[in-house]
Amino acid sequence: MNQYSDDSFMLHTDLYQINMAETYWRDDIHERNAVFDIYFRKLPFGNGYGVFAGLERVISLVERFGFTESDINYLRETGYQEDYLTFLKNMAFTGTIRSVREGEIVFGNEPLMRIEAPLAQAQLLETLLLNVINYQTLIATKASRMVQVAGRGTAFEFGTRRAHETEAAIWGARAAYITGFAGTSNVRAGKLFGIPISGTHAHAMVQAYQDEYTAFSKYAETHKDCVFLVDTYDTLRSGVPNAIRVAKEFGDKINFKGIRLDSGDLAYLSKNARRMLDEEGFPDAKIIASNDLDEETIMSLNAQGAKIDSWGIGTKLITAFDQPALGAVFKLVSIENERGEMVDTIKISGNPEKVTTPGKKKVYRIINNANGKAEGDYIALEDENPQAEEKLKMFHPVHTYISKFVTNFTARELHEDIFAGGKLLYKLPELEDIRRYVEQSLSVFWDEYKRPVNPEQYPVDLSPACWEHKMKKIEEMLPPSAR
Ligand SMILES: Nc1ncnc2c1ncn2[C@@H]1O[C@H](COP(=O)(O)OP(=O)(O)OP(=O)(O)O)[C@@H](O)[C@H]1O
Ligand SMILES: O=P(O)(O)OC[C@H]1O[C@H](OP(=O)(O)OP(=O)(O)O)[C@H](O)[C@@H]1O
Ligand SMILES: O=C(O)c1cccnc1
């Protein structure tokens, strides 16, 4: 691998972005103000909601916007001409970014982030921003599903060895923590983000001593907090009895925190291990389970009455095993014309769900004041003020007959100002605040939207003005023969 002391993320993009930016620059439209929305269309895992993550990383990347010398040298080697390279070299981010907060509960077809910047700058950010937001939001959503079934503060993230490389491991651990995981086994994630770290021991240690009793004793001699992994040879006939023996022998010299089960029938083994620990005077010792766990297995184990207190979860979480990608997109919704006026744009598709929603918009969460619960999200044009309406009409943007009127509501705007004119305005919240925010945000949704299997579909509606504007644009852009 080539090493550069000034490597940056500016080339962490698809080649076509650099080529499109060149076209804009040579045609002198690169400075035109452009507005892009980032959103996904379909929630992953059949979940009823998503948890937005990635903002902290996006901010740190946008703050470092700017091609370095080695970036420019590399582009020169690939054949770009000097005049364009000079333009790139002098480019700084001067745009405006509005975004939902990290940890916000989000849904399909609503803008999560809005980038308004000179066209070439915005184009150069697309791939990088989607790379970050798609992964972190996917993992946060998966983790939140797991927390729904396992309970807050009962799951530990163990996935680094299976993660898609190093950065995915640590940002995935962070995404899991904000949704209610108790901590991570990744020590660097602890150092960088302040996430609580935690760990037991592996089969290797038992194998190294060749004898379970010796291995547990040696660990107890060197560590105060002890969780013994009991399944290396025979969980109930050897592992649990050896753990109990060492716990008794060491007494107050250690905190015998419990045992970990990592194979076999986790329901059967946990029930029997629980009985043995209780009978031997260790009712407070916890049982931790691991082994390819996901929300379905956890749900099943709970239904079987398994006596499991906490869960070590790796592969299925950190790789988003059953749906390894979120499909968030970056779509142009408005652009300045040659007269300096903003013109809203649309992308038409045969699939009505894929038709983009033109114009600068704001997203509101409509909260019913009578019960504090969310009625739906409401996407309005920039200059609308839904709070001023006595009676808000909410209707499905594709199946418009599905509609309701809402009165006595609070319209909470979901976007915050992150950058304006290239300057960072936003003060990043502490990780613990983000974690509390996820919990608090979820509490405004009825349980029907939060159940992991076949949840109700939460309404994400367009205001009548936004909907009419979209219909008008479709009409305008269709070829005359189709009108
Ligand atoms: N009682 C149970 N009900 C449902 N699923 C279970 C139960 N017990 C274990 N599982 C899950 O079933 C799967 C068993 O996988 P597998 O057969 O590979 O494990 P194993 O043979 O017990 O252990 P290993 O191969 O890791 O030594 C794991 O995903 C585990 O979490
Ligand atoms: O199962 P996961 O959810 O990914 O959790 C992490 C796993 O990593 C460790 O074992 P490892 O996978 O290295 O070995 P094993 O498969 O033989 O247990 C640990 O014992 C868990 O089983
Ligand atoms: O601490 C553990 O038990 C652990 C950590 C990572 C992977 N598997 C287990």
Structure in words:
One of its GO terms (biological process) is NAD+ biosynthetic process via the salvage pathway. This is Nicotinate phosphoribosyltransferase. The protein has 483 residues and is an alpha/beta fold. 38% of the residues lie in helices and 20% in strands. The chain contains 16 helices and 21 strands. It has helices at residues 15-26, 55-63, 69-77, 82-89, 119-150, 166-179, 187-193, 203-209, 212-222, 235-250, 266-279, 295-303, 315-318, 431-442, 447-450, 464-477, and strands at 33-39, 50-51, 96-100, 105-106, 113-118, 155-157, 183-184, 225-229, 255-261, 286-289, 310-313, 329-336, 342-344, 361-368, 374-381, 392-395, 403-406, 409-413, 415-420, 423-424, 460-462. It has a seven-stranded antiparallel beta sheet with strand order 13-12-1-5-3-19-20, with helices on one face. A six-stranded parallel beta sheet has the order 7-6-11-10-9-8. A four-stranded mixed beta sheet has the order 18-14-15-21. Strand 12 (329-336) and strand 13 form a beta hairpin. The protein is globular, with a radius of gyration of 26 Å. 1-O-pyrophosphono-5-O-phosphono-alpha-D-ribofuranose (PRP) binds next to strand 11 and helix 13.
CATH class of the largest domain: Alpha Beta
- The number of domains is 2
> Runs with pLDDT <50, length 5+?
none
Lateral strand order in the biggest sheet: 13-12-1-5-3-19-20
Determine the structural class based on helices, strands and strand pairing. alpha/beta
CATH structural fold name of the largest domain: nicotinate phosphoribosyltransferase
Total number of helices = 16
**What is the mean pLDDT?**
97
- Outline the biggest β-sheet: 7 strands, antiparallel
What is the name of the CATH architecture of the largest domain?
Alpha-Beta Barrel
Q: Rounded to an integer, what's the Rg over CA atoms?
A: 26 Å
Query: Which percent bin holds the helix content?
Result: 25-40%
Distance between the termini: 55 Å
List cofactors, ions and other ligands: adenosine-5'-triphosphate, 1-O-pyrophosphono-5-O-phosphono-alpha-D-ribofuranose, nicotinic acid
